[in-house]
Amino acid sequence: MSQSSSSLQVLLPPNLEAAAARNTIAVRVELDLAKEPEPQLIPALALLQRWCSSSPKPPLLLALSRSQVRELVAALRGQPCFAFVNRSDSPIAWDGGNLIGISEHLEEPAATKIPEPGANARPKRSACSAASDSGTSRHEPALVDGSEHFVSITLPAREHPSYAEIRDLVKMLGFVLEPSNRRWWLRDRHKALNFIAAYANRLREVHGARFTPNFEKNTARLQQVEAVASVAPESGSEAFSVTLGLASEGVPEAALRAALNAGSSYVEHEGRVVLLDPSRVSRLALAQARLAGSPASGAPEPRRTFRIPAARVASANEVIEEIAPGYQPPEAWRRRSDPLRHLSALAPAPIDPGLEAQLRPYQSLGVAWLWYLWEQQLGGVLADEMGLGKTLQALGLLTAVAGKGVTVSDARAGTSSVGGVPSRRISDPRVGAPGATLQGATSLVVAPASLLENWRREAARFTPHLRVFVHHGSNRVEDTAAFARFDLIVTSYGTLARDRALFEKARFACLVADEAQHIKNRRSQNASALRAIAADARFLLTGTPLENSLDDLRSLFDVLLPGYLGRPPEGVRGEERAWHDRRLRELTAPYILRRTKQSVAPELPEKIEQVVWCEFAEGQQALYREIQQQSERELIDLAAGGAGESSLRFAALTQLLRLRQVCCDPRLLPDTARPGGATAVESAKLDALMELLAESIDDGHRVLVFSQFTSLLALVRELLDAEGIAHVSLDGSMSRTARQAAVDRFQSDTSIPVFLLSLKAGGTGLNLTAADTVVHLDPWWNPAAEAQATDRAHRIGQTRVVTTYKLIVSGTVEEKVLALQDTKKALLADVFEASDAAAAKLSLADLKSLIAPR
Questions:
Q1: Nearest CA to 106 among 25, 9, 199, 204?
Q2: From CA 621, how far away is CA 508, in angstroms rounded?
Q3: What are the φ/ψ torsions at residue 26 (nearest 5 degrees)?
Q4: What are phi and psi of 216, to 5 degrees?
Q5: pTM of the predicted structure, to 2 decimals
Q6: Which of 292, 376, 297 is nearest to 338 (CA)?
Q7: What is residue 136's predicted lDDT score, i.e. its pLDDT?
Q8: What letter would DSSP give residue 140?
Q9: I want to staple 390 with a disulfide (CB 3.0 to 4.6 A). Which of 370, 451, 541, 682 is the partner?
Q10: Which pairing describes strands 143-146 and 210-211: parallel, antiparallel, or unpaired?
Q11: Pairing of β 240-246 and β 303-308
């Protein structure tokens, strides 16, 4: 592939003008199969697929007519996809809908152009043109005649948009032109049947070809194969048996299988002829592979049965409807699949009317979605954008699960009462784990320690009828039986890991993990402890279910639905890896609910993002360049000494940290990292910050200042103290009570204009709508962390426009980090669309490129 940012590139010949005059333009098409195609490329890819029925692997070498290239240009309007083959790294520029220097050569010659509607003059037709190999009407379509023994085709008029494609098709398939009647003939029964099977529908539906009454009569006995599906519940389980194959009335499966394996487009048995349309056969092979969970290979089976667990019904239903849209599944299957496809049809959750009255419509829908999944003993990821009330929606679910809106026995069929206390059968979602009876309906919420107080307060505010116990610090129980006295247990990830033995003995009605990006590493103690919890259903709350790669999503679903996804084989690459990634998005999509502020809360004021570029002073500039050169020398020396990738990666990360520290303030550097005992103390960034704060405060704004370096925030505090600017601070060293006190003070005291927060401790779970300005002192590769921090202010309850400033030192590692963020944004977008692209982690090559000079 060239350097084009698009996954598709169309390379044109240097002699385009001469080729266009001959109406045969040699085009090379390059398609990056490792990338998911951009949505704006789909129309062009559909054209290419139509022109390449055999679906060869790219790059494709095509001979296209002027009209076909015009279609391609129209489909890719404005996209940087066209270039000359000898200058593939220089996309051809657009002028509106025209490719500069190209489009003018694609027009039809004046003698054959169709006159504009209303034109007075009509071009004269010569005797030669009257004897062309096409029909006499300019809009006359192709005409098909024949039987199962032969096919004849009269080409459409030359001006017809399908003329060139049909002409090329008959030539490619061995049709012979008979000059006396200008018809193209295929006189061979085997070839005729293959042609009818493969192309008759396409000629009729895509190109508008007419078929003679003689053809219809002679081919009436030919049957087109159809895909069929049947679904039946498995006895004794919640799984289903799905059979997907070909309708084969009167034709044995063995005969169908032999024809499919031989690549034949038809099968004969006892005088019956069944046509096997290759496109339908290919779609069936793909559908069977998707249901089987393996890449398609070879011909499909005439009939194949699959066991579909309850969790896979929603994704399997999409597959079946694509291949056999008229199938009739049983009611049990519909109950599993339909609500996840039509969210507006979800039944309301049985929650307290007082709470229902406080929910926005999208929040009520979110609670209904969570409740439906809980009833089905499944789980889901509530991935709403920050600030849309994920905690409140989770509390709505938990109050329904606790039976505070209705009794638990009313809420789910098949429940009973034990000694007057509601009880129900709890099925452990872990594969093969037995069920157990749990009295009551106690649920568990696990969250970062910094958010425990927020959960307690939100529960007291919105669901005061819930009996809540915060299991943390010195306030912890030692006996699992004590959990039964409460509707909701709230604990931290760290406490859960330490008290794992205690929690493993309990079975919970519902498990909710807040800020679930904390378990993206499946090998961590957090993830391991969560997987060990037995719960009727599990739910994850996170606005960023994917930060580094699709492996993050796999780790989340290991906790959410254990055993549901599986993992791709070790070492898979290229097309096979891409297949597993597409399957991951397909399987996870029904269980991810993502709404944005723009779509569900249009009343929110806009959010403005701005980069403030800072320039080094001379001393800070010299220090940065010296450390940069020293970093490169150290990496070269390590590599020359045979250091492994892990050692090189650690060294690169260390050097990257040093460069970022210099960008913020040279005083952040440890003494051992100062080359030659440098003592430069200039900080272009802090100078810019103080100017920005002074202007913002004068204009009546209140500001959140975020940094990943607590030592940098300490320097900012000194500057604010020196200027007499009131402020509060929050970082990871503070106790939960102290953090909440700082938040409450800033929210309630308008005389405090500045709140300093460490990105890790203050970037999630806080409501800081008293601020309308956000400053990020230092960037990092993951844009989600910055977005979450910004959304402390830009959330429900905010009435003012929120302005975000990123302070970036130009010409440094920070500028490169800003560019790297764009790739991460695209990765997040891909997942949410599916639900919702594979992206690499921050590799050694990435780190080296960040350190290297521009």
A1: 25
A2: 58
A3: -80, 120
A4: -60, -40
A5: 0.60
A6: 376
A7: 43
A8: -
A9: 541
A10: parallel
A11: antiparallel
Alpha carbon 624 to its chain centroid, in Å, reads 38
Q: What CA–CA distance (Å, rounded) separates 265 from 281?
A: 9
Task: Give the dihedral of Cα atoms 316, 322, 327, 331; nearest 10 deg.
Answer: 40
Helix/strand/coil for 185: strand
Write the pLDDT tens digit of every residue in 156-210. 988 888 999 999 999 999 999 988 888 999 989 999 999 999 999 889 988 999 9
- Percent of the chain scored above 90 by pLDDT? 24
Residue pLDDT, tens place only, 340-352: 877 877 889 998 8
Residue 709 CA to residue 409 CA, distance in Å, equals 52
Which of the 8 DSSP states describes residue 194?
Answer: H
Rounded CA-CA distance 805/786 in Å is: 11
Give, for 60, the enclosing helix (H) or strand (E): strand 60-64
Nearest Cα neighbor of 514 from 609, 393, 619, 678 is: 393
Neighbours of 123 (CB within 10 A): 13
- Among 230, 266, 270, 265, smallest CA distance to 252 is for 270
Summarised one tens digit per residue, pLDDT across range 165-174 is 999 999 999 9
Tokens of 599: 């779509």
- Rounded CA-CA distance 694/725 in Å is 9
- Cα 25 to Cα 784: distance, rounded to the nearest angstrom: 46
- Contact between 376 and 494 under an 8 Å Cβ cutoff? The reply is no
CA–centroid distance for 62 within its chain: 32
Helix locations, 120-277, DSSP H? 127-130, 163-172, 189-205, 213-218, 253-262
- Euclidean distance between CA atoms 426 and 415, whole angstroms: 10
Which residues touch 284 (CB under 8 Å, ≥6 apart)? Answer: 227, 244, 245, 246, 300, 323
DSSP state of 517: G
Tokens, residue 92:
């051809």
Average pLDDT over residues 541-567: 79
Distance, in Å, from the CA atom of 148 to the CA atom of 184, rounded to the nearest integer, reads 16
Euclidean distance between CA atoms 850 and 840, whole angstroms: 15
Candidates 775, 726, 720; CA nearest to 746 is 726
Of 708, 665, 669, 671, the residue nearest 688 (C-alpha): 665
- Please name the helix (run of DSSP H) or strand (run of DSSP E) that holds residue 650, with its range, or none: helix 645-664
Strands, E, within 249-400: which ranges? 266-269, 272-275, 303-308, 379-382
Q: Which residues contact 739 (CB under 8 A, 6 or more apart)?
A: 450, 453, 730, 761
Burial of 129 by CB count in 10 Å (0-12 exposed, 13-18 middle, 19+ buried)? middle
8 Å CB contact between 544 and 824 = no
313 membership: H or E segment, kind and range = helix 313-323
Which amino acid makes up residue 248?
Answer: S
Determine contact, residues 515/482, Cβ cutoff 8 Å: no
DSSP-assigned states of every residue in 615-644: ---HHHHHHHHHHHHHHHHHHHHHHHTT--
DSSP class of 435: P
